[in-house]
Amino acid sequence: MSLYVHFPYCQSKCRYCDFNSYAWTGQNMEAYVDAVLQEARSVAKELLPQTVFIGGGTPSLLSPQLLDRLLRGLADISGFVHSSKETTLEANPESFSREKASLAKDLGITRISLGIQSLRQEVLQAYDRVHDPEQALKALDAAQEVGFAHCNADLIFAFPGQNPEHWWQDLHTVLASGIDHLSAYELSYEPGTALTRLNQAGRWPAENPDHCQALFEGTRQACHQAGFGGYEVSNFAKSGAACLHNLVYWRSHSYVGLGAGAHSWYQGNRVQNLPSPEDYLATIQNRGQAIQEKQRPSPGTLLFEILMMGLRLPHEGVNLDRAEKLTELDALEYFGDPLSSLLDRKWLCLETGSQKERYLRATETGFLLLDEILLQLLPDDSNSPARKAQ
Amino acid sequence: MSETFPRERIRNFSIIAHIDHGKSTLADRFLEITGAVDTRKRAEQMLDSMDLEKERGITIKAAAVALQAKIDGEDYLLNLIDTPGHVDFSYEVEKSLQACEGALLLIDAAQGIQAQTVANALLALEQEMTVIPVFNKIDLPHARPEEIAEELEHVLLLEKESALPCSAKTGKGVEELLREIVRQVPAPQGDPDKPLRALIFDAKYDEYRGVVVYLRIIDGVIRKGDSVHMLGTGRDYDVLELGKFTPKPKPFKSMGPGEAGYLISNIKRLGDVKVGDTITLTKGERAEPLQGYREPQAMVWCGIYPTNSGDFENLRSALETLKLNDSSILFEPESSDALGFGFRCGFLGLLHMEIVQERLERESDLDIVQTAPTVPYEVQFLEGESQVIHSPGELPDSNEYQEIREPVVTTSILVPDFGIGPVMKLCADRRGVFLRQDHLSPTRVMLVWDMPLAEIIFDFYDKLKSATRGYGTMNYDEPRFEASRLVKVRIMVSGVEADALSVICHTDSAQKRGRAILRKLQKEIPRHQFQVALQAAVGGKIIARENIRALSKNVTAKCYGGDITRKRKLLEKQKEGKKRMKSLGRVEVPQKAFLAVLSTDE
């Protein structure tokens, strides 16, 4: 079992961001921290999570006092300090000082994830980021100096029209900064974001897809050469430094989410909290929980979701035997012809593990075409897997 | 009320106005002032309200409202007759005007006279109606009534002193308008003792009551229970209900000369009633028909296909339902190699086509593919006979015909002086022939060009707007057919001819059009797992080619965090999108691509 805590506020909202996050305009952070702790008492008491992730939003916006209150509270309630093998705090350069880093480490944080995104001023500005390249480099240094066990940097590539040299420079600087994990995302146009609106209005043309592919492949290669193995589509780590918490999502293991809009997956249920911080606060204070929706996916839907997440791991793939235990469906039988034709085309392959368990994995070609694979596996009628399973 | 209103105290009038010049607002003020609508309960823009009065089961909007006003101590019946507001419906406008003796020419005092206002005002003047110019929005700071008065005198030869100022928004000057209507507009002529003659000036379909006919009595008296005969269609009906919109529908037992209102009979299909037809009594002496009606011509045609071929019959019944409401839609089955079975549909104009397409999607819940619009062409065969074709696919081989004729319209374009250059160039680029230019005022000019209609139905209007910073307006008259050097440009996708994408265009622009279409397709057709070749050809000759590169990467960059359901739903949405595409051989083509033919951008 893992634990996720969502902190929804940011100094300002970035143009590309589709997360449940809000520009902070004076909302009461203390009340929010207390609400999270109250929710923790309802659903995470003595949870003893294997991994913890404090994400957002920008949790580094919390004052030292509130960070202290949150982490001590969570430690008391869930016991994570003893059980967790990896406890990550997300931070943005503008709100990550050496003092805060040091405090976080004392409170049990073992891993820092820094939202660097770019080291070019013009790019950061275009994204509406509030930090500048200098702050980004300082934050990377601060994390090193305080001595966290692990440190990640987030970068975004395929800024339209950017000189590719600028990207390669950013990439090499960040890889050489002492971090042991890199998330490098291609800029994506998510529904509902400011960026997508600009794109649709013709004021922000997307980068040419061939060029994006060259950047994607070049990035994998550069990371590999720097000793960062690509263990997921956009994630690279030195040996032993893969993010255990995110692996929980990709492997469809269970997690409890606390905070506004947080998601949980345990005992066969997918639960989503109320996304608006105001609604969340008000509801927690009355009921101790703030559930917006609780659903039990049908076995077919669940099996698809297991593949959707698991195929993103190119070396590991999906453990079909474990998937069968969870869903009582045999993937080969359930997906039938579309799956066998993907195997025939060598976009997917089957492998056997050391315990004779079967793994389904994307091949090198298939890995670049994961969305195509998933579209072909997706049943024609979105409701049919449920009916088929019942 | 059983008695008919005394003829000398009836006034029938309409309001001629450009869109947004304040027609609906002025109508609202009339309703309030005459007490037809309680001010406190007033719903803005009563005349446009579709759910006007559900209690009587008539849900369509009033095309004629009877207002009772006391002017200088006398009771008057003022019938406000609505006119459709777009170039596509000029025939309906003409018929509505025929039901009136006078018209208010409502002009935005800031924006001035627009091309369409001129056209409709001229129509009214030709019918020897009294036209009262009214300047609306006079309280706006940038109103320029003096300048517009000059334009008025120059373009329509209306005395500039005759214009009345008002503000429909505040109500200022509106009562004076009513008084002037009574004073200037003549009372209707007509003899109650003559045989019945009534003009059908509009007809609407109501789902509860069937067809509601809007009529204006010219001579004689019509009574509930009468058996009436329509001279044009030769059909007979019993009058089940007669009435007036006040604006609520209110039944009357009879109506006499000069009165306007509605008639409900047991008419099931809108197509059975013709706007412009004459109503008389079945028994007794037959009246002479009023100025004859004619079928409006469909000048824009396109193919409409169901995305799912199993929906062909559903599409047919959806079109039939729409035709109940709008008898001017024409449709006939056609088949396309690329799109399967569908319908070739005819519309009065481009706007009419858009309205129908929107209603079809909204009301029928069908996924449809619409091909690019085309005008009708007349093909003159070598043997001497000629044929009108409605789709590029019908064009025979070039050795079979002598010539092709296309519709040409005389187009009046009103532009501010800074727009003259760009608009002249636009018209010339679109194969126009310049006729003349008139200066309305020192800053406004009317340009008159003969334009091929085919050039107008592409993005001409958008281009006009951008060349004139939004100030240009246009209007055109009835099309006539003229010979032209036209060819068919065929489009091939991966070697498969896409008949639904072929276009007829002028020889000189064939290559440019062909290339523009391919470039647009290149953008609209998503990458496939193989390379897709696009070609344009005239006859056997390839005139342009482009490629769509094979897809080699499609993977979501960001997929972590707990919201698994949302990721799955995004994929499901993508899959839905793919299902709505049409297959050309192995290539999946999105619906939007079938409109690529519209593209004229380079």
Write up this protein:
The complex is a heterodimer of chains A (390) and B (602). Chain A has 390 residues and is an alpha/beta fold. Chain A has two domains: 2-249, tm_1862 like domain (pyruvate-formate lyase- activating enzyme, Alpha-Beta Horseshoe); 316-389, Arc Repressor Mutant, subunit A (Orthogonal Bundle). Helices cover 44% and strands 21% of the residues of chain A. Chain A has 17 helices and 17 strands. In chain A, β16 and β17 form a beta hairpin. Chain A is globular and about 60 Å long. Chain B is an alpha+beta fold and 602 residues long. Chain B has five domains: 7-184, P-loop containing nucleotide triphosphate hydrolases (Rossmann fold), CATH 3.40.50.300; 197-281, Elongation Factor Tu (Ef-tu), domain 3; 300-373, Alpha-Beta Plaits, CATH 3.30.70; 378-484, 2-Layer Sandwich (Alpha-Beta Plaits), CATH 3.30.70.240; 487-598, Elongation factor 4, C-terminal domain (Alpha-Beta Plaits). Chain B has twelve helices and 34 strands. In chain B, the strands form seven sheets. Chain B has an eight-stranded antiparallel beta sheet. In chain B, strands 21, 22, 23, 24, 25, 26 and 27 form a seven-stranded antiparallel beta sheet that branches. Chain B has a six-stranded mixed beta sheet with strand order 2-3-1-4-5-6. The longest helix of chain B is centred in the C-terminal third of the chain and has 16 residues, at 564-579. Chain B is globular. The chains are: A alpha/beta (390), B alpha+beta (602). The interface between A and B is large, with 45 and 27 residues.
Mean pLDDT of chain A: 94
Rounded mean pLDDT score of chain B: 85
- Distance between the first and last residues' Cα of chain B: 66 Å
Termini separation of chain A comes to 28 Å
Strand content of chain B: 25-35%
Give the low-pLDDT segments of chain A: 382-390
Q: What assembly state would you assign to the polypeptide chains in this entry? A: heterodimer
Reading side by side through the largest sheet of chain A, how are the strands ordered? 9-10-8-7-6-5-4-1-11
Fourth-tier CATH superfamily name of the largest domain in chain A: tm_1862 like domain
CATH class of the largest domain in chain A: Alpha Beta
Share in helix of chain B:
10-25%
Percent of residues in beta strands of chain A = 15-25%
Largest interface: A-B, 45 and 27 residues
CATH fold topology of the largest domain in chain B: Rossmann fold
